[in-house]
Predict the 3D structure of the following.
Amino acid sequence: MTCGLPTFATKNGGPAEIIRDGKSGFHIDPHHGEESAEKMVKFFEACIKDPSYWESVSRASRERIFSRYTWDIYASRLVTLCDVYTFWNHVTSLERREAKRYLESIYILLFRSLVEKMKDRLKQLGIQHT
């Protein structure tokens, strides 16, 4: 993506977050080769009809990468995370119970709704979860 090549990648893991399907690249399912091939064919057909389409996808992918996923941005986030950890480590002497409460509050604020959505989706798919 940083080179400006239109990217086709799985819709799982990192690519699911990085690529905006149809705009900055394309999500494909490696378990469905025919669908993936069809998506690639449609992309190349669109490029034949509109030669600027390749450039628009290329530009969008570079903009996405350089606005969110450069080493400078990653390093800055890592330093911030280290600063937060150091802050908590030096400012407070959290006991195990207090740390657990703090982590539970983060879970409730950030992740509980996502977990509930996942449970609902698993139920829709008929998959048992524990």
Summary: The mean pLDDT is 83. The radius of gyration is 21 Å. Residues 108 and 114 are 10 Å apart (CA to CA). The longest strand covers residues 8-10.
